[in-house]
Sequence to fold (348 residues):
Amino acid sequence: MKGYIKLENGSLLEGEIGDTKNPEAEGEAVFFTGMTGYQEVLSDPSYKNQILIFTYPLIGNYGINHADFESKRPQVKGAVFYECCEHFSHYEAVHSVKAYLQKWGIPFLHHVDTRSLIKKIRSSGTMNAKLTACANTAVPPISLPSHDGGEKTVHGSGSKHTVLVDFGLKKSILNSLISRHQKVTVLPYEQMGDIFSLNPDGVVLSNGPGNPKQLREYLPLIKKITQTFPVLGICLGHQLLALTHGYETEKLLFGHRGANHPVLDRQTGKVYMTSQNHSYVVKKGKGDLSIRFENVNDGSVEGLCHPDKRLLSVQFHPEASPGPRESEWIFDEYTSMLTQTGRVAHYA
Ligand SMILES: NC(=O)CC[C@H](N)C(=O)O
Fold:
């Protein structure tokens, strides 16, 4: 059955509705440029409530397996493909992408001219959109997504204890810490105040959906946490640390979403290919941390650090999933921050 994606600026592109039971979705339209990694991306909570457009024209050829989910369910509001392959082939595959989206009632559109769609978004910027069976429809205003809840859980074992604050975390961040022999307490962000009684060796602030400024009320608490424990911030976590330290954030025209974003580590002069997924970015300017990482393509801020090595933040995803693993050492650097003795007194 014929269907459409309608953009907020009135553009209309035709395709085929993937699941006629669920033809309609409204959300912010963003695009992902990776050739693979669709399973991780569809289940990444940072994409919550967004309509995700895949730029690579063939998605689904290695199916969906049991291992590569980043959370328990698809998080996107809808998906758009050029071709969403029904006949998958991989020894671990258990479903097709279509079957996965249908199982969870996630609307999707295929056989769309994604190339022209993405050109529109690249020139006019990220905007709201609607997947629909009806060409004559309006795109309503859409409220920003935020992560709701989650529960406190404890994982792994080891002499070092990390509290991983869950703003909508990817499973791979948790796994990256567990594999470095840490005991990890996952704490929903609403319970962040409990960190002081848990008294961990360090704190990781996770990725998550939405605008970091929606979480403004937590900034004083985050400041106190950075004054007490070594902290690593990843993506949304990085943006929150930046706001806490006097920086501003702004929205990029069309975001960075893909698996080949080059980032320069100013400390070593090395460039790493990184996995990214963000709309917002930290503005250069006033702030009391050092800019350690920089995007090679557009010069945007990719990470901050404090000179006493008790705070590190990255806009990119060192856990990859999907994407290159060459910046995984960020977790090693965080782990070495935990072995420094004594609590932080760097602003005291
Ligand atoms: N991956 C993330 O944590 C995304 C952070 C934030 N929601 C953004 O879009 O910029």
